[in-house]
Amino acid sequence: MFVRRRRHDPRWARTFIVSGAVMMMLAGGAFVAQDMLVGYVTGSVRQDELIVPAAKQQGRHVTISGAKTILLVGTDTRPDQNPTDAVRSDSIIVVHIPADHRSAYLISIPRDTWVRIPPFDNGKARYSGGHDKINAAFAEGGLRLTGRDQRKHGVTLLADTLRENWGLTFDAAAIVDFAGFTKMVEVLGGVDMYVDQETRSVHIGHNAKGETKVPYIQRFNASGGTDLIPVAGVTPQTYHVGWQHLEPWEALDYVRQRDTLPNSDYDRQRHQQQFIKALLRGIASRDTLTDPGKLKQVLDVVGQSMTIDSGGIDLQDWIFAMKGIGSDDVLTLKTNNGTFHESSEQPGAEALDDTTLALLEAVRGGTVESFLASHVDLVSHS
To answer: What is the spatial distance between Cα 183 and Cα 220, in angstroms, rounded to a whole number?
Structure first.
């Protein structure tokens, strides 16, 4: 019997879904050669105000020049979910782009981080403020709302929470829903990526007849953790170390796994970040760019799955300004050194360690590149 000590949300926590926003806001360089295609890109994505002005940068003229910080939020709503049910953010990524617009840094905020969430009134529900895990901020902001209003107020309270706890403010934001985004992998026909550690699936296995079966029974134990009980006769799908092509079902299963990995959600975050870059390589590949039908499908899926708040800057300006950022220039940074860092205030929740707090200070001051010069170990090799 395999024992995972920390309790976790049984739903998928799919950090990789924000890759759509990264593609649209950072990878436009692949498309700038064709004006018509740029127009299609900017026309296919849904644009809306996600962060009300009070949560945005204050007291300065809006311009595409200079360093930029973007809030990316990933959600995962079930097809049968009541539209008024609370929706928590499955992923929170701070993207920092230095003033030269030649690179982008992705910083994942652990969703179980214990924070103070400020008071908030969305017009239908009032939150008095208090302490909770950071992924509750999006849920409280959008409580009792649906659709556009739920997204807008959820992202706003999340941005307010990030500002109150760490002084972060944002020039733009994007939210991506996983529901339609699985189609991206199917359109691309899978991904080519490096599997950096042997990973066993808790969701997919096969019996002696080759039939697909669930390989483990998951049960909560008395200590608040989860026990994985192997199902007799079922061999888990295993992903071995090395470069390989993952079929769509394999890629989506691989990036879900955390229960059999030594660092749990941090290993999964790293794999999902690697997956983001693999998708970026896939969309920018010659096979995609030279196939108009395939490229249109990719852009349609991205546009249907996400909403962008461009912060008052034309989306086409974003694309042209960021045209020099390729997939190899998108660097993912470790938080808490890639391990669980328990909160001293709330057992079972997380806190950000001193190095991560210093990294966020560098984001505020626009000094991330110089900070990383003495903290090269924070860069994930993906």
So the answer is: 32
d(CA 26, CA 104): 8
Q: How many Å apart are CA 350 and CA 42, to the nearest integer?
A: 38
Task: Please count the structural domains in the chain.
Answer: 1
The pLDDT profile of the chain, 382 residues, written as one tens digit per residue, is 544 444 343 333 333 334 444 544 444 444 444 455 566 666 677 888 888 764 455 555 688 889 999 998 887 665 566 666 667 677 898 999 999 998 999 898 988 899 999 999 999 999 999 999 999 999 999 999 988 899 899 999 999 999 999 999 999 998 877 655 677 888 889 999 999 999 999 999 999 999 999 999 998 877 656 789 999 999 999 999 999 999 999 998 998 898 899 888 788 878 877 887 788 788 777 787 778 788 778 778 777 777 888 888 887 788 778 777 776 788 889 899 888 899 999 988 999 999 999 999 999 999 999 999 999 999 986 6
| CATH number, position 195 | 3.40.630.190
Helix (H, G, I), strand (E, B) or coil at 325: coil
Residue with tokens 């945005």: 56
| Distance, CA of 300 to CA of 337 (rounded, Å) | 36
What does 244-270 look like in DSSP terms, one character per residue? Answer: EEEPHHHHHHHTT--TTSTTTHHHHHH
Residue range of the domain that includes 71: 2-378
CA 300 to chain centre: 20
List 71's β-bridge partners, or say none: 94, 173
At residue 342, φ and ψ (nearest 5 deg) are -70, 140
DSSP 128: -
> By the 8 A CB rule, do 356 and 335 touch?
yes
Enter the tokens of residue 292: 């108009």
Residue 237's H or E segment, with its range, is strand 235-239
Are 379 and 331 spatial neighbours (Cβ–Cβ below 8 Å)?
yes
- In the three-class reduction of DSSP (H, G, I as helix; E, B as strand; rest coil), residue 338 is classed as helix
Token digits for 337? 């050194």
Q: CA-CA distance, 215 to 210, in Å (whole number)?
A: 13
User: Three-state SS for 289?
Assistant: helix
φ, ψ at 329 (rounded to 5°): -95, 0
